[in-house]
Amino acid sequence: MHDVYPLLKKTEFPDIFRGKLSTVQINLGYKCNQTCLHCHVNAGPKRKELMTLETINQIIEFIKKFNIKIVDLTGGAPELNPHFDFLVKSVKKLNCHVIDRCNLTVLLEPNKSYLFNFFKKNNIEIIASLPCYEEKNVDAQRGNGVFKKSIKVLQKLNKIGYGVDKNLKLNLVYNPQGPTLPPDQKSLESSYKKYLFDNYGIFFRSLFTITNMPIARFGSTLISKGSFNSYMELLKKSFSSKALKHVMCKSMISIDYLGYVYDCDFNQMLGINLSDFKKKHISTINKLESKERINIADHCYGCTAGAGSSCGGSLL
């Protein structure tokens, strides 16, 4: 795989600074039951990296200390970490809102069917990846048979109240098929809702459109196809100063499976540490200053192109 960071390191992206910390995003490991073309984590079934119980306990102590109220779980497939249930139960006792970034098909893996009721019992918000509502496009991006499995899981989630009960949040994520910006989130959400209901009887709360980041597997693919530079030009010419005001790194930190801390999930994948560029472990952090400089590179244009992009979808 191509090393993308040297192409991104030199940047004219505007300086940004941390605000009040409200969210901790935790990468529980790179093991996944899928291998997706757009994956910025380069996750897959052969990856072995998983967060240990010791590191999870250190993160729980951090959450207590800083009174964090939103815990965002990601991977890989976070549910494949053997300590997933323990972490969820522990932070729920601290009155945290828990988000699970679910690829849907993991719930059909052996010994994972219990997660349907586990999610409901713990009132976990599900943000589920479904990069298109048409079967051929999803399978092309995520693997043969993934669409049908995803539909089956969504129907099961609806059956227990997700996407139907307003307190059981089920959101879907759209990623472009290639080096383009996402379309308007609101209009695409309407199309998703109509198509999925008309054809499969599926309900969901919101659609989040997320720009593909020019890093890891997607960035390497762009280089191989000779389209890396043109994609970067698209992101830069689409820069929005309004979106810049709302970028997610201002209110969150990202923790890798070893417990090291980054400004965001994308910086984590590029190995860009916090402001002084020194690796910091979650167990050693006693304070995080507001107005602390956030480390940037050219990939940051992916979060500020067009209507903007974050883990919660469009910024505008």
Q: Work out the helix count.
A: 12
Average pLDDT score: 92
The largest β sheet comes out as: 8 strands, mixed
Bin the strand percentage. Answer: 5-15%
Descriptive notes:
The chain is of the alpha/beta class and 316 residues long. Helix content is 33%, strand content 11%. It is built from twelve helices and eight strands. It has helices at 5-8, 53-66, 84-92, 115-121, 135-142, 146-159, 185-200, 216-224, 228-237, 241-244, 265-270, 301-304; strands at residues 23-27, 70-74, 97-102, 125-129, 170-174, 206-209, 252-255, 261-262. The protein has an eight-stranded mixed β-sheet. The longest helix has 16 residues, at 185-200. The radius of gyration is 19 Å and the shape is globular. The model has no long low-confidence stretch (mean pLDDT 92).
What is this structure's SSE topology?
Blueprint: H1 5-8, E1 23-27, H2 53-66, E2 70-74, H3 84-92, E3 97-102, H4 115-121, E4 125-129, H5 135-142, H6 146-159, E5 170-174, H7 185-200, E6 206-209, H8 216-224, H9 228-237, H10 241-244, E7 252-255, E8 261-262, H11 265-270, H12 301-304
Parallel strand pairs: 1-2, 1-7, 2-3, 3-4, 4-5, 5-6
Antiparallel strand pairs: 7-8
